[in-house]
Amino acid sequence: MTMEGTSGEGVAASAPLAKWRSDFSRTFQYYLDRSSPRPVGRWLGTVALAAVYVLRVYFVQGFYIVSYGLGIYVLNLLIGFLSPIVDPELEALDGASLPSRGSDEFKPFIRRLPEFKFWYSITKAFCVAFVMTFFSIFDVPVFWPILLFYWIVLFVLTMKRQIVHMIKYKYVPFDIGSRGMAERNLRVGGAMTD
């Protein structure tokens, strides 16, 4: 009898928690969906969050390992954002590959990591890193200039490799100039299929 009473109380106690979690998840998804067509506002919010994080690290004078890990993660996301979904070096050439010659048919650039997921992942990373700054276990004493120098070297080498890849396969991951604007307008107008 006591076993049944205990399990019944546990289910009754977890029901409000499950309802709250479901309501929170639904509300969060609603606002996330509403933010999707507003990239400027989303990115301004993320820049503000990043500024708060930088100020927190500056005033605490610590958590450099957390910042280094955050920088490596953001660099990894940036590479995914700048890379095509089908890498011509790794995948066999098929209908979704990038054009390699001027006579090839135009194929739109499709990112490996879409802009919305890029923004969402960066924002979550800054939130997690900010929360980590409130726990002293993550404040590992290190000589931060070495970490900064190493991150800059990684950034330069990685971006150099990515730019060489862009030049070799002739793609630009941004809409630049009149051709990019015309292609985007065609896609929005429905004349171009993805």
TrEMBL record:
This is Protein RER1. Involved in the retrieval of endoplasmic reticulum membrane proteins from the early Golgi compartment. Keywords: Membrane, Transmembrane, Transmembrane helix. One of its GO terms (cellular component) is membrane. The keyword Transmembrane applies. It is a multi-pass membrane protein. It is found in: Membrane.
